[in-house]
Amino acid sequence: MDTVTRRRFLLASAAAGGAAALATGGMGLARLLDTAGEDDPEAAGGGDKLVVITLYGGNDGLNTVVPYADAAYHSARPELAYEPERVLALDDSLGLNPVLPGLKRIWDRQQLAIVLGVGYPRPDRSHFRSMDIWQTASPQAPVATGWVGRWLDGVDAPPEAAVSFEPVLPPLLVGETRVGACVSVDGLHLPPGIDADTVAALGQAQSGESSLHLRAAESYRDFLRADEIVRQAAQADLPPDAAGLPPLPATATGGASALAAQLALVTRCVEAGVPTRVYSVSLGGFDTHADELVGQEWLLKQLDEALSAFVQRLAVTKAGRRVTVLVYSEFGRRVRANASDGTDHGTAGPVFVLGPAVAGGRYGEQPSLTDLDDGDLKATMDFRDVVGTLIGSVLHADPAQYLGGYQPTPLPLFRVSL
Fold first, then answer.
1. Would residue 369 count as lying in a domain?
2. Integer Cα distance of 103 and 300 in angstroms
3. Which domain holds residue 355?
4. How far is the C-alpha of 46 from the C-alpha of 187, rounded, in Å?
5. In this structure, what are the phi and psi dihedrals at residue 174, rounded to the nearest 5 degrees?
6. How many angstroms separate the first and last alpha carbons of the chain?
7. HEC profile for 76-91?
8. Does the N terminus or the C terminus of the chain have fewer Cβ atoms within 10 A?
9. Using CA of residue 353, residue 358, residue 362, residue 367, what is the dihedral sign?
10. Would the pTM count as exceeding 0.85?
11. How far does the signal peptide extend, from start to end residue (predicted)?
């Protein structure tokens, strides 16, 4: 491939965003797994890890953590409300959706913290703006960096410090000078007319090119190496303290859900000693405007099965016991059901924090179902207090430095020091 064509291709890729992200600090899975064994759990916070699970679409928090004893709940959504005998009771007022038995077991082990009424000032019902606010931690005005990305900048992190196993790199992991890696869960997919030889040619370094071109080219070589590594990851040997465990779920989509596949790769990296500090994974489809009961239960069942298996696996190994999981969605749903047996975009909702070191229980105040803001719940907890607690306790950094100067109120989410 001639140099001019190659440079144009790299520039076009950068303009599209994918190569630009990789060229400024990303990496393929092969290089990521090459760092296995570099994690130092004895270093100050070196072994502590955060897994961020994003539920895209706006999960209905009222049918996830159900206020089953509140008459206003049953009155507002007569066709969608769960009867008290169906929910998995947490106490005499709240219960989990009946398809979340795995999370209920984690609650019973006191390793699941449920933070109630989480939102942000002046809520926005747009999926894109609300998700942008959550991932950038900037409710006041749009910014170009995510809160994890700013942490990457602040600690001058290597590219493997934050990894996304989502289809595209989320704004969460984008900093000004550092960018997390984005690795496809099911390997390399080439567009029509592009074969592996073409990609390999794009990855060959050539003299006279800028450092941006050279680093973009390296990302294409990573793509090819990642394809083979993804297919082999599930067959890798287990560490000694994980001997005898069942095999991880398949990493390709199919029998296992996409979330289970993403978490399987996180497990593999944690057990292999990869020094990644933050992982980002996701599950989409929560925009339940119609026929919510069936759709949300199907999604929550995937979340429950994947997450409960993941947390159970974490508890087995020393490295796994240093992992904390955050589960959030961009907003909740409106209190009253709509005419299509669904719910429309709302505001506040519950957030889950879980893991072996988490102090399980209820945090914050359940919003009133009668004292509403134009039909929506009033947030009782700023999401930056949750994020700030995780930045301080898991990433061992000053939260205000990465939250635009916001000084969060720390939550006692951990029963042991990480």
1. yes
2. 10
3. 47-191+245-402
4. 28
5. -100, 120
6. 51
7. HCCCCCCCCCCCEECC
8. N
9. negative
10. no
11. 1-23
